[in-house]
Structures are given as structure tokens and as C-alpha cells.
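User: Here's a chain of 243 residues. Predict its fold as C-alpha cells.
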Amino acid sequence: MALSQDELKKQVGYKAVDDYVKSGMVVGLGTGSTAYFAVERVGQKLASGELTDIIAIPTSVRTKEQAESLNIPLVTLDTHSKLDVAIDGADEVDPGLNLCKGGGGALLREKMVEICSDKFIVIVDESKLCDGLGPGFPIPVEITPFCHEHTMRTVAALPSCAGCKPVLRMGSSSNNKVDGDEIAVTDNGNYIVDLHFTEPIKDAPAMAKELKEVCGVVDHGLFCGMTTAVIIAGKDGISVKEP
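Assistant: Prediction complete.
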């Protein structure tokens, strides 16, 4: 019988913790439906005594709340700027293991934590693998509320973003569906514009650099050159890809 998507997510979430998290580590906890299971596994192994002396850094308010409910000791980057490992999901993974993240709206905190980690383990089910970033999942860009329409126009006019349709995220910031009349606000008090592409992005690292240089852009959901390993759950079992 085929496993459900949640069961696949659970497999990779648990495997990432089992394979990469050891006692005494500082661990980055991702955000989203797949990362949820990795957080759950850290909590289980701490409760059983299999893991000890773990401290963790959450990447969102909701991950912080989940970790607290599991009695996982938490700190922030202010006291611990170096992590041993971070585990998180992704919305898309290209053949070069560049990622699109931020469907759940936590892209800034995720990137701040994951860029400080010795190892960054990405956990996905095989539906997240793509030939090129862009068409399968809009690229989120976190922008300041100040003059946000100007920033949206500036982003859309970038050479690397040619042909994209920028859409301001409405309702909840934790998904890119329109589920409210108010502009969505991130944990950091910013807005998100989702860039919709019909063609694959030709050069994700170049686009990442161009976006970051726009005044008014806080950060974006392209995570390029950061991945240590991708753990993939599929119908034929679990596989691991490394750069």
C-alpha cells in the first residue's frame, strides 16, 4: 500500500534527526509540515534520554511553540551564532540542490539560522524535486511594508526576474493562497511578494544576488549553495542526494 504524503514526510523527518543529530549539538529547527516531524523526533529522543544536552534554535514562532510543548531547550542566534546542524523542508529542489523555500512565510528566519549551520539537511518528499525552480512554486520575497508597491515593481523589472508576475501575499503569511483581505505579515512584521514564473529560472544564484541587492527587499526564498544533503522520501523508499 502506498504511503500517504504525511507518512513520507515523517520518514524523512525522523531519518534526518536519527542520522545527523547527536548529543551535545546546537540544532536549527525548520518550519513547515515536513520539519514538524523532525522537531517531533528531537522531542521524542530527548524525552527517552537517547539524546542529551541538545539546544535548539527555532526558525518561526510556530516552531518555537511546538518545541516548547516538547520541552526542547531553546536559544537564539544572539547567544549561539554557530550551529552543528539545521534540518528543514523545501518547497522545491532543483538538480543542483538549490532550493525554493518560504511557502510557509518563515524564509528570513530560516535563512538566518541555516546559513550559520555547519550542516544543512533538507527533507522532502519526491514531489518537491523539479528540473528548474520557478514554474512549480512561486519564489517568495520578503519586503518592507514601506513603499511595498514600488519594491514589487523594482523586483519585477530585474533582468533575472523577466517574465515573472509579482503577487502580494494576502491573508495568512504561512501559505501563498489568498485566504484573507488583509496583506499578510511575517513574524518580522514584513510583507511577502510571491514571484510567479511560467518558465524555469535560468540562473537561480544570479537571481538570488540581484534580488538581495534591491533596496526594500529584506531577503528571498532562493537558498543557493547551502545544502549539505537532501533526504528524499519516495514510493521506492528513502534516498539521499549530496552536491
